[in-house]
Backbone:
């Protein structure tokens, strides 16, 4: 029986880009367009999904 455990957290993923401390962004896919309202104006910005080091998803790939 194999007792090796693989931690599938963002901080262990080849696609994760650490920004500071425990915060980073997922670089698995292209940036996503996000819309948000500032005062009476709607703005658009492209960004990578923000994640924490302990987050995880189904696209995990070991470094």
Residues:
């Amino acid at each position: 029986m194999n007792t090796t455990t693989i931690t599938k957290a963002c901080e262990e993923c080849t696609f994760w880009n650490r920004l500071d401390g425990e915060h980073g962004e997922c670089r698995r896919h292209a940036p996503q367009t996000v819309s948000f309202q500032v005062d009476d104006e709607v703005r658009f910005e492209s960004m990578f999904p923000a994640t924490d080091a302990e987050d995880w998803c189904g696209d995990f790939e070991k470094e």
Observations:
- The chain has a mean pLDDT of 91.
- Strands lie at 16-20, 23-26, 32-38, 41-47, 50-52.
